[in-house]
Amino acid sequence: MLARKKRGGKSSVLIATLGTEPQVVTITLDKLLEQKYLVEKVVVIYTSDNNVSNGLATLKQEFSQNENYSNITLTCEPVQHNNVILSDFTSEEALNALFRTIYKVVRDEKKSGRIVHLSISGGRKVMGVVATVVAQLLFGEEDKLWYLITKNWKAGCERKFHLEQHEEAWLIDMPVIRWSEADTFMEQVAQLNDPKEISIWYKKLTKKANQQKLSEFVEQHLGERERQLLKLVCKGLSNEEIAREMYIEKQTVANHLQNINNKLRDFLGKEDMKINRKVLITMFMPIFESED
């Protein structure tokens, strides 16, 4: 039996999407154990495909017979919708079910205090994409997203659960843009059970942040006359109508608008941004409506 020591002082879990090649799970696990991670649990996320089911059966057998895995618990988590295990992801309902499954597994393991190692090497490509999104939502600094690369081995080759010494494989630590620094966001995410709820909440949060940013632009970067003119633009007035309202020349209105556009591009850091009346109304109407 392999002697294993804790790395980083924490228990770890390997969560893996499963396809037709179950050895991807065991090779990834072996690589993590070589790196001295104390992996005490493996969670396999699977579909109802016959080849996947056969691979899952052999994977269970390998865990029951391999002494190196004697202290590791294997859990199998199906992707289900309406209590039916899915075979593919060809509908929005199926994709949402996949999202919920991976999200729940990762969230529950995070709550248990384990370091999460998420393998996206097995299964359909969409499983890896969704798993990556979940990692962005829930990962902390110690969690890892892994992709396994093997040399001189292709899908369909003779099944080998473990590599020989002369055989090569690389476990790639995939970069993840994490939300762990956004405390408010993470606290809210941890309380929500459905990823769609998170998406809705995040859109509201982003919209509010954008409005605050644009309010800052209006209040701190525009002069009084420019603010007055922009408000009239958002009310739908033409340049001629604005000129009469402000007792200025029509050309002066055009000059003010050009200055506002230039300041906005500079403020947003988008020098090539195309700004017209419609863009200004869309961006700033909510700001002025909240003032009235």
From TrEMBL:
Q: Which GO terms describe its biological process?
A: regulation of DNA-templated transcription
A GO term for molecular function: DNA binding
- Keyword check for Transcription regulation: yes
UniProt-listed Gene3D superfamilies? Hypothetical protein VC1899 like domain (Restriction endonuclease-like), Winged helix-like DNA-binding domain superfamily/Winged helix DNA-binding domain
The protein's matches in SMART domains, at most eight in alphabetical order, are given as: HTH_LUXR
Which PROSITE patterns does the annotation name?
Answer: HTH_LUXR_1
Q: Which UniProt keywords apply?
A: DNA-binding, Transcription, Transcription regulation
Identify the residues that the record assigns to the HTH luxR-type domain, covering every copy.
236-263
Q: Which InterPro entries match?
A: CRISPR-assoc_prot_Csx14 (IPR019848), Sig_transdc_resp-reg_C-effctor (IPR016032), SSO2081-like_dom (IPR019092), Tscrpt_reg_LuxR_C (IPR000792), WH-like_DNA-bd_sf (IPR036388)
Q: What is this protein called?
A: CRISPR-associated protein, Csx13 family
Q: Which organism is it from?
A: Pseudothermotoga thermarum DSM 5069
